[in-house]
Every structure is written in structure tokens, then in C-alpha cells.
Design goal:
By secondary structure, the protein is mostly helical. It has a domain of about 45 residues. It is built from four helices and no strands. It is elongated, with a radius of gyration of 18 Å. The two termini are about 30 Å apart.
Length: about 80
Amino acid sequence: MIPYRGRIKVDDQAVKRVLGLPMGPNPVVYEKKSYADTFSEFYQVFGHDNDHKAPTFVEVDKWLSGEGKKSTDDK
């Protein structure tokens, strides 16, 4: 809701246009992981699987710009 302007319609087409997300007839397939698995995978992605420290903003930015950009897909 925007004051004095009303509501903004947010539908799948608007989200696709604004965020650049892919759309298609195929459903998004995901499996729910336990929190332990999620944290373990998170630490491995950023190379902190031994010390379990959170990555720095620089590490995350570097990953998103490099390997993370290559590993994204429709899911």
C-alpha cells in the first residue's frame, strides 16, 4: 500500500519483470533439509566447514559474483 496512491498489483508477471526470475510450466522441485544439513552446506559453500564462522560480506560478494553466479539455475 502506498499512501495517497493506493495498492500496487503484484502478480507473477510483475515479480518476473522486477526480479528477473525465470517462469515456465515446470514446477520448482525442492526437498526440505534438516537445519543441520542446511548449515553444513552453507559453511562448505564459503569454505568455513572446519571453523563454522559466518562468511564476511566480501566473501559473499565474491562468491555471488563468481561461482554463485555460475551455479544458479531455474530452481
